[in-house]
Amino acid sequence: MTLPVLDKLTGAERELVDAARRGLVHVTDAPVRAVVLRELLLGLRGPVDPRGVRVEGARIAGTLDLDHVEAGVGLALVECVAVNTISARRARLPWLDLSGSRIAGFDGTGVRVDHDLDLSGVRATGSGEFGVICLRAARVDGLTILTDAEVRSSDGPAVYFDSGESRSLKGRGLRATGAGDLGAVRMLGAHVSGELSLDEAVLANESGPALHADGVVVDGDLRLAGATVTGAGEDGAVRLLGAHVSGEVALGAAVLTNDSGPGLAADRLRAGDLRFAGVTVTAAGAAIDLVGARIAGQIELGGAAITSSGGRGLSADSIRVEDSFSGEGMKVRGSGEYGALCLLGAHIGGNCYLEGMELANDSGAALSGDRLRVDGNAHLQETSAAGSGEPGTVRLLGARIAGELYLEGARITNDAGPALYADGLHVGGNLDLTGVSVAGAGEEGALRLHDAEVGSQLRLPGAELANATGPAFSADDLRVGSYLELVEVKVTCSSELGALSLRSARVQGSATLAGAAVTNDAGPVLVADRCEVRDSLMLSGLRGTSAGEDPTIHLLGTHVGGQLSFTGAELAHRDGGTLVDLEDAVVDGPVFLPAELVGPAGRVDLDGFRFGSLGDATWREWLDLIRDHTTAYRPGPYQRLAAAERAAGHDGNARQILIAQQRDLHRRAPEAIGGWPARRFHRLWGALAGYGYRARRTAAALLLAVVAAGGLGLWAGHVGDAGHRAAEHTSDLTAARGTPCTTVELIGVGLDRGLPLSPGVRGRCDLNTGIAAGQWFTVAIWLVQAAIWALATLALVGYTGLVRKTG
């Protein structure tokens, strides 16, 4: 048998040896030399009970050196005091219990513990590069317990667990203070096969990370709920870069602080769920960094308060969340171009719940969601977002929401750029902006949806949109699956591009601005050129005020499949310009454009406008509108109104419309007729033939010409000189005195001279051209004859409809 190293033992040491052999706990406040403990574990003092060596309250004298010891029993030093560092480098112990003890440190590099390593309640103060509690490359097959422990290091880590392994690590209430870049609690590449719990821990490092756990693998949960973590520097207060947590990462109600860098740095984190409800993070860099993270379950951030003074608040570019992302009531403040809440290229497999958030960034975006993909619904109701600059406040460029996007009651502001910037946004269901308040600046627009697509309804009832230096709502090339609703919106802006811009937009259902109030002091109220609305376009009750060169309502080339209604609308143009431009617009259904809309001096443009019917307006009201309220003469509106009346079987109305067209041509575009002779003839033609549309008037004029011819002949028989008459018997024309004709013969002379068909009286009675009176009557009858020929021709073409001059 190998002799013991020590020849003499103190009384307390003999009692310890006896207790160890009997499996009892030795309680003493006397010193116990460390070497005696080593001898007991090595079996140099004889067999030890399987319950191990257990000491309570003792002071350990000397250095407890367990390096390379392969002990058959465990060691418990409960509430003991070890002045020097305990070393167990590459030792193997069944279990080790240092709970409640005060130690100078513990070096367990490479130690193997078959069951539990209990360091709960330990008080340790020390220094060194590898930590006061060093478990580098250690393997603990049971629990590693640091519950309520207090560990301080003046120049390095407090707890060092790089590449360590443990079935579970319990650190609830741990207070660890370290210094330097290595971190206060360091766990790089560690593997915990169960739960890693640091709930309510207090971790601090004034010159580096508080928890440094890059690449850690946790097969269960990683918990920091209620923890207080204070770090410093660019590495972050908590570092979990590339970490892999099969269960949840729980930071509920935790407080993370870093005045010179990130709060939580967890790029490429792999986790089941993230439970961050109520977390408070204050940092100078990215407060929470989850770039490229993969979350198999859901993210919970409800009630979180996240603030960064020099970077992003929550940075989650390219994150993938298989289930839902929840942040109800979250408050996030950040800075920089893409700012407070950044989800660029993120993919959320379930719903996104962000109701009631408060987002702020005074130098960029509040929410950046470019290329964001949400497979469910996205909820941002009652969210408040304040941003600044060209990137926009809420950015959703190219984002794809498979379900619904709700923004009811949201308040979004930007003092130097768009408020809601969502070009290329795709929403599979409804986009609901009911009651939203959007205030932006600049030519990009306050609410911008260029080339966006909404699968069902786009709703903005009661919304308030404002932009003092650009459009309020800019949605060129927008596509809406069923319904565009702008009921009761209030819009104020200053833009030559228009307050509401819907150029080339396509709405598969109906669109309505009923009851909207829109004011633009530099341009149009609504610009919807080449817009397509499959059903109705309702502008009923719209109150719009515009200015500038363009019309108040601009519908150039718009196509409306149903009705177009201006019923009850009130439009004003401060510069006296056109109120409604319907040039080349097509309305397949009825048009409701009441006369009171334009008032006595208002102007509309109807050139090329085509419509199905006139709604409740009479054709005379429309004729007045075309004649008295269009900006210039155009034939198209007259022609289409006449066609509509003719299609309804009202040919007489159609003729009156076309006659009014010719009169308007003469009044407003006389140069189109020709020189003054053409214009005189045009006027005469209108008077005599109604421009070819009143053949009866032509026939009446023809009858009058015939009567005039007969009358001239009768008159000629009573006028003469020197005994002769202008018309007398031809057989006596050379007689000294003429022979008078009968009354019938005189009328016949006039008709014979004036009409193509002769009544056969000129052989006996004719005009006497030998005297001056006869010559004058001859010339007069020639003129009548020319008139009869012309009137006969006009009557013919008027009745047959062979010729129409449309202008």
Question: How would you sum up this structure, described in words?
Answer:
The strands form five sheets. This protein has a 39-stranded parallel β-sheet that branches. Residues 802-807 have low confidence and may be disordered. Helices cover 18% and strands 30% of the residues. Helix 6 packs antiparallel against helix 7 and helix 8 (695-716) runs antiparallel to helix 10. The chain is built from ten helices and 86 strands. The protein has 807 residues and is an alpha/beta fold. It has a domain at 690-800.
List the helices and strands and how they pair.
Elements: H1 11-22, E1 25-27, E2 31-33, H2 34-42, E3 53-56, E4 59-61, E5 75-78, E6 81-82, E7 86-87, E8 92-93, E9 96-97, E10 102-103, E11 106-107, E12 112-113, E13 117-118, E14 123-126, E15 133-134, E16 139-145, E17 150-153, E18 159-160, E19 165-170, E20 175-178, E21 185-186, E22 191-192, E23 196-197, E24 202-205, E25 211-212, E26 217-218, E27 222-223, E28 228-231, E29 238-239, E30 244-250, E31 255-258, E32 264-265, E33 270-275, E34 280-283, E35 288-289, E36 294-295, E37 299-300, E38 305-308, E39 314-315, E40 320-321, E41 325-326, E42 331-334, E43 341-342, E44 347-348, E45 352-353, E46 358-361, E47 367-368, E48 373-374, E49 378-379, E50 384-387, E51 394-395, E52 400-401, E53 405-406, E54 411-414, E55 420-421, E56 426-427, E57 431-432, E58 437-440, E59 447-448, E60 453-454, E61 457-459, E62 464-467, E63 473-474, E64 479-480, E65 483-485, E66 490-493, E67 500-501, E68 506-507, E69 510-512, E70 517-520, E71 526-527, E72 532-533, E73 537-538, E74 543-546, E75 553-554, E76 559-560, E77 564-565, E78 570-573, ...
Parallel strand pairs: 1-3, 2-4, 3-5, 4-6, 5-9, 6-10, 7-11, 8-12, 9-13, 10-14, 11-15, 12-16, 13-16, 14-17, 15-18, 16-19, 17-20, 18-21, 19-22, 19-23, 20-24, 21-25, 22-26, 23-27, 24-28, 25-29, 26-30, 27-30, 28-31, 29-32, 30-33, 31-34, 32-35, 33-36, 33-37, 34-38, 35-39, 36-40, 37-41, 38-42, ...
Antiparallel strand pairs: 83-84, 85-86
